[in-house]
Model the fold of this input.
Amino acid sequence: MKQCQALVQEINEVSSYFYCLTLEEPYLAQTAQPGQFLHLRVGNGIAPLLRRPFSVAGTSPATGTIRLLFRRVGAGTELLSCLRKGDWLDCLGPLGTPFSAVGKDPAVLLAGGAGVAPLLFLGESMLNAGKNVHLFYGAADAKALLPVDRFLSPGVLIHFATEDGSVGEHGNLSDVFKLALDKGLAPGELFACGPLPLLRVLANENRRWVLPMQVSLEENMACGVGACQGCAVLIKKDGETLYKRVCREGPVFNSSEVVW
Ligand SMILES: Cc1cc2nc3c(=O)[nH]c(=O)nc-3n(C[C@H](O)[C@H](O)[C@H](O)COP(=O)(O)OP(=O)(O)OC[C@H]3O[C@@H](n4cnc5c(N)ncnc54)[C@H](O)[C@@H]3O)c2cc1C
Ligand code: FES
Done:
């Protein structure tokens, strides 16, 4: 992990409120692993005081570039969306503990909303390692979906779910995934990221499916490096319940260990 200045190579609005930011910073591009994140200083002034965390959505070690996908939701992401090619961005990273592949095929990625970002990086790296990968990606409607096929090589099987039925299957992500299981999909392992209620439902259902399942959690962060305890969540392990830091021991946890 290091603090570095990354050069903005490209920034585009890719769908409503979603931006794709490509940064040139060879160290980050060569060291970041799927599931890890960068802590960004989004402005040069006093506010916002705290850095903002964003998952790494992809890297290109050969060109020394790293990709982030972010949704504009408040002051920090508003500032980020105003970056232009040639600007410099203060980054801390790569941070956090990455996903670890257990090795069973096919891997199923379950993504809600902006939670798709780390799973795109994971899907791409698993595909390159010769795995079969399915991505289930859900959002409220067509407008809220990212054009994920732009960020994945052909080979990852993408299943869309929208709550208004405007794209893909009609329904929420967990129902659409359950339907696929009923139709015979037999995942070897699950990886999920998205809003907490979705992760809670999936973790609860997984008590029946009993599949290896890793989740990437989001918590408000201050330091991002394990010093302030501001991002602690309850984890139960070996009969003990204790706090773990999302920025340090996470953001990726075994779903059966999270106290939902
Ligand atoms: C490990 C980690 C990885 C993340 N990766 C991504 C990513 O790849 N892409 C992305 O778009 N976002 C990601 N986030 C969320 C992102 O950090 C926040 O959206 C961002 O910090 C908001 O900053 P802001 O100043 O624009 O909004 P703020 O002014 O801080 O908040 C504006 C509104 O957004 C809500 N909000 C803030 N954070 C979150 C959150 N985590 N989830 C839901 N609502 C939130 C607030 O409650 C408030 O209503 C990640 C968060 C974590 C912890
Ligand atoms: S944000 Fe400070 S310990 Fe995690």
Notes: Residues 217-260 form a domain with the Dihydroorotate dehydrogenase B (pyrk subunit); domain 3 fold (CATH 2.10.240.10). The longest helix spans residues 196-209.
